[in-house]
Amino acid sequence: MTTYPDLIENEAQLEELLSRPTDEVIDMFKALEGDLIFLGIAGKIGPSLARMARRACEAAGVPKKIIGVSRFSDPQERERLEKHGIETLRGDLLEPTFVRSLPKIPNVIFLAGMKFGAEANLSLTWAMNTYVPALVAEHYQASRIVAFSTGCVYPLVNTTSGGSAEQDPPVAIGEYAQSCLGRERMFEYGSLQHGTPVALIRLNYAVEMRYGVLVDIACKVRDGQPINLSMGSFNVIWQGDMNAAVLRSLPLCVSPAKILNLTGPETLSIRQAALEFGQLMGKEPVFEGSEAPTALLSNAGQALALFGKPRVTPERMMPWIANWISHGNRLLNKQTHFEVRDGKY
What we know:
The protein has one domain (about 10-210, about 235-265, about 295-310): NAD(P)-binding Rossmann-like Domain (Rossmann fold, 3-Layer(aba) Sandwich), CATH 3.40.50.720. The chain contains twelve helices and 15 strands. The protein has helices at about 10-20, 25-30, 45-60, 75-85, 95-100, 120-140, 175-195, 215-225, 240-250, 270-280, 300-305, 315-325, and strands at about 35-40, 65-70, 85-90, 105-110, 145-150, 155-160, 200-205, 205, 225-230, 235, 235-240, 260, 270, 285-290, 295. The strands form five sheets. It has a seven-stranded parallel beta sheet, with helices on both faces. It has a two-stranded antiparallel ribbon with strand order 6-15. Strand 4 (about 105-110), helix 6 and strand 5 form a beta-alpha-beta unit. Helix 6 (about 120-140) packs parallel to helix 7 (about 175-195) and helix 8 (about 215-225) crosses helix 12 (about 315-325). The chain starts with 10 loop residues before the first helix and ends in a 19-residue tail after the last helix. The model has no long low-confidence stretch (mean pLDDT about 95).
């Protein structure tokens, strides 16, 4: 049974929690054949996800290579990964010759993509989100691939609906979401063309101490900034729970590609979250606008049936985040833009 602290005091403690494998992940690795490669490892999610895989292999007593691929614009990130037993390869996934040089590994986790600043460079957004997946699907046609996607491919739905389910048709609003749907289509095409087993993870949204919707709301409360209420509801999942679910998706890969929503079971209120942070931090939230009847929401019923409920609830996350922010601990400064309703990120 995993135990959690009352508060998270520093990044070392945070990283340990985010990368701590569950018993189910460890058992999965006992049965999983082959090494793993993480493409686009150096973002918000990749380091803790790969480290969880490394720790699970050690706990399971199975020797596997864990390889991380990135441009590694921050050399310290590469050093941290290698310190934790993760081999690294440096290069640009936009370069076809580099992609073709990558080792043929049986298990692929695809994390590469572009969201922040997407509207400022739409051609790069489309290249990262569709061209790179096409290259990867071709090169790794004999592997199994778990690829990150996003709940942004769904339309806005009524806040009382329980969210969009996997069988609902996507209605991608804006070019970022359209390019993410393009990413899915490239992996779906590769899966059908080559029989590649694929799982597409529609994530909505991951959160930890340094970024996420809850962090964005808490920072606005702390700073007295107006909180836009138009996107009045949202879903989140603790990144540690998300990491475990993504790794456990490897045996679920099939052809045609499987689509899986991944988020928490709760439909949360922006207003109520801000009021809760206000109480925790002794601040009065400032609001602007009013809640629309629709929001970007995902139904994670299928993932809940497969993996069980997330171990970390929003009720546990919020005091952690309030304490973290109140003490001025490091943030990634990568806003989720949760309030965006027109798809322009």
